[in-house]
Amino acid sequence: MGTADFAVPIDERYFEDYQPGVVYEYGHIEVTEPEILEFATRFDPQPIHVDPAYAATGPFTGLIASGWHTAGIFMRLFADHYLSRVASLASPGIDELRWPAPVRPGDRLRLRATILEARPSRSQPDRGPVHTRGELLNQDDQPVLSLMAMNLLRRRAIQSGTTSLFSPVDQRGSPRSAPAHRPGALARAGSWSRAAGQGCCAPRRRSGSWGCGWICASCFPASTFPSNSLAMAIISRIESCGDRHSRATRSAASW
To answer: Is 0.70 surpassed by the pTM of this model?
Structure first.
């Protein structure tokens, strides 16, 4: 483990604990030849990963781990030490995945996580995206993997009576309430395709993508969506829209 660590344990960690500019290091995990062979035999059976004799005459002059094996080691350290166990909601993906150097049997790998950005969501103030530059380094401090990760983390909610600390705000920072609920063709369980573009709060289809609009938890309960991933994709699209009227309200209990 590096000299810096979070002030709170991983099972009490929320969005506010991820401060931009802070660097954390965790590890180590030692890579063995049997593990390299086992992983590659199942998932990446290239000769440089599964055939030591061939690998000795290959471009790396020896057996090396699959890049996906290396990514799995990164994820294990990332989940064990860095990513909150109580506030992590989802990740839309990673960017710039690179393997700058091979991983060989006997290498000892550690995680370095640098927080680049953490900002509360404007449309869903109970959470925020955290951008992290992740690296795996070997015993010689040589990077063997690098990537850019984005994780959605829940904020610490402070309730006052029935009012949440995180009320929706528009891009100018002033409170803005949802439009009044109007009776209409509401979504029913299993009928998302019929509900799209209908109902009082349905998002509007525009230019081939989801445009600005309200998603009302009372109109679109969890059973409306075939999967949580679809709901998250729609929310992500709405949040990324440049229209200042873009909004998404949702009840954590109902989705």
So the answer is: no
